[in-house]
Specification:
Elements lengths: L1 H17 L20 E9 L2 E11 L5 E7 L4 E9 L2 E3 L2 E4 L2 E6 L4 E5 L11 E7 L32 E3 L2 E5 L4 E6 L5 E6 L9 E3 L2 E5 L5 E2 L1
Antiparallel strand pairs: 1-2, 1-9, 2-3, 3-4, 5-6, 6-7, 7-8, 8-9, 10-11, 11-12, 12-13, 14-15, 15-16
């Protein structure tokens, strides 16, 4: 979960940074000003009857942008900076990077659906209420005993896909396009093979052949 949270955080920062935005006056003049959404917001997101806490902190940033910090305890995200973007306001609808909020001035709420870049499969709605502050999440210490790893291996690049174990060998491809074949008992490198693009899929082992594809458009055996 720690890896997933980190990856999603990087993804959302990229989306926030690249998303076009501009501050607009609402057509009827009844919408909120940018300053109205600044501050701390806390509530929950709901899916299939399950509710999980969610909090956002919106603050002014440079170049007329608004920065966002995200707290999702179930993903071990605590006040995590997620980048900044220029907000666009149209009536009671506010677009900030990948987020589309509906602002209710009377109820003092922000509601919407989690961005597809953050939750790619499901539509997960949320409702947030204004709060004084968002408390930082403290990760509880594990109660079980911690095991030391038998061995470690530095691939020198991110490993996006899962590894494959077969006949005492662990196969794993990295973002620099190299497939590593490691001895599963010691972590020693048996061999490696460099392709022409990042490897983002799990290798398959069939009849003593190792099959995998890379982003260079080729299938390797």
């Amino acid at each position: 979960m720690r890896y997933a949270a980190g990856f999603l955080g990087v993804l959302l920062i990229a989306v926030m940074a690249c998303a076009p935005g501009r501050v607009e006056e609402s057509a009827n003049g009844s919408g909120p000003a940018v300053e109205d959404i600044y501050g701390a917001w806390s509530g929950s997101m709901v899916h299939a009857g399950d509710s999980q806490p969610l909090a956002l902190e919106l603050e002014p940033a440079e170049d007329d942008k608004t920065s966002l910090r995200l707290t999702i305890p179930v993903m071990n995200l605590s006040r995590r900076p997620m980048g900044s973007a220029e907000p666009s306001i149209d009536g009671d609808r506010i677009t900030l990077g990948p987020f589309l909020f509906t602002y209710d001035n009377e109820a003092q709420t922000l509601s919407g659906t989690m961005p597809s870049g953050f939750v790619p499969v499901y539509e997960i709605p949320f409702t947030l209420h204004r709060v004084e502050a968002v408390e930082a999440l403290s990760r509880p210490e594990p109660t079980a005993s911690l095991r030391e790893p038998t061995w470690t291996f530095d691939a020198g690049a991110p490993l996006w896909a899962g590894s494959k174990f077969a006949d005492g060998v662990l196969y794993s491809g990295d973002d620099q396009g190299r497939l590593h074949a490691l001895d599963a008992s010691s972590g020693a490198v048996r061999w490696s093979f460099l392709t022409g693009g990042p490897i983002r899929t799990r290798p398959s082992v069939v009849n003593r052949g190792v099959f995998f594809q890379a982003d260079d458009g080729l299938l390797y055996r």
